[in-house]
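Amino acids appear as letters; backbone shape is given numerically. Here is one record.
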Amino acid sequence: MKHSKIIDLLNSTKIVHEVTTKGWVRTFRNNQFIALNDGSTIHNIQCVVDFENTPEETLKRITTGAAICVTGTLAESRGAGQNVEIQVTKLEVLGDSDAEKFPMQPKKHSLEFLRENAHLRVRTNTFGAIMRVRSVLSFAVHQYFQEKGFVYVNTPIITGSDAEGAGEMFKVTALPFDGTPRTEEGKVNFKEDFFGKETNLTVSGQLEAETYAMALGQVYTFGPTFRAENSNTSRHLAEFWMIEPEVAFNDLADNMDLAEDFIKYVIKYAVEKCGDDLKFLEGRLIDEEKSKPQADRSEMNLLDKLNFVLENNFKRVSYTEAIDILKDSTPNKKKKFQYIINEWGADLQSEHERFLVEKHFKCPVILFDYPAKIKAFYMRLNDNTEPGKETVRAMDILFPGIGEIVGGSQREERYDVLVEKMKALGIDEEELWWYLDTRRFGSAVHSGFGLGFERLVLFVTGMTNIRDVIPFPRTPMNAEF
């Protein structure tokens, strides 16, 4: 008999009929009541065993973590907490689990312990909920862009360019570590390597996506990106997923509109589709916050925070205005910030971004028109800017609890200006000849942004460490699993 998913059984309106389901035992109490979960929902289904007519050997094998198949009658539950239960007529143990050795016991585990057991942590309620939300958000990303006629482009994982000097890169090589071929100057001779040149894992698919936008109009990438920075923080991963749309003929205002509309769409989709999981994660967050000092607790519950983003327009503020606000702020004057804001041109840190969002404006913020010297070469230089205070058409979206969640810009479409910027920064024109071609042949205004997917999942789930929203986190000194 084909087995049914537990989510379908719990939602079934057809009572008193024979069903078969399979899953993993969460708990087994009184030799009679099995809490069974198959990953389709956060809720378990209760399976009631006729222990008097079940062999003792079988009962001993029904342990936490064991995989079982049960057949029985789906009936109204006699106990509290569930509408239906399965009155078991047949039970088969598909895979045993040694109860004394199985790490995921039915008790509260620390998140650090669960990270050390990332291959099994998804069997807990918390990580089952997070990964279902992540999956739904991923689907929503594609659905949003596909509904709007964007073309999905797969940009290279292995690349010879570093996009923007966005960070340290992981080198890709087929050369032997012993006896690496050298040039006369003693440097590694990459001409003898697989690709005949130095290559790395990508930090962004943006430059390649731009070339496709200049032919297909509107495109997006959604794939893994890599940073080799030794950032051991709760906000950084060495391997993460990026969403990067690029749109021909869009200026910075269009870019901000697209980013805000996109974020609201995917969050709304998750709220509508993941009600049970988000309600559980909200309860988990409330319990976690009880141990924090009152001043450190969130002002809103998880679902309130998500709905707040959906119901409010993002505040659009220039970098210059933001600097004035930060310079005059109490934490800056009392030197409570780790990085004191003294002058225009400072690169904003997470503490500044969160102050603007959480304390000053109390809503998501889009900062725009940043100093050129702290932004990438491809961002469009604003006209008529004061010498020494040149700004670019850049924008960052800042979220409560996260800081920057989106970074984007109007791209520099003028060939001469782009070449001058590359020369000033020492970027090799020959290395990016193909990128410059898009400014030689039919150049036009265009814009795009990048959104770190894990930071979005972090915000939607209410988790506080980015290592807990990706199945197998890659961080400094950790490539386990």
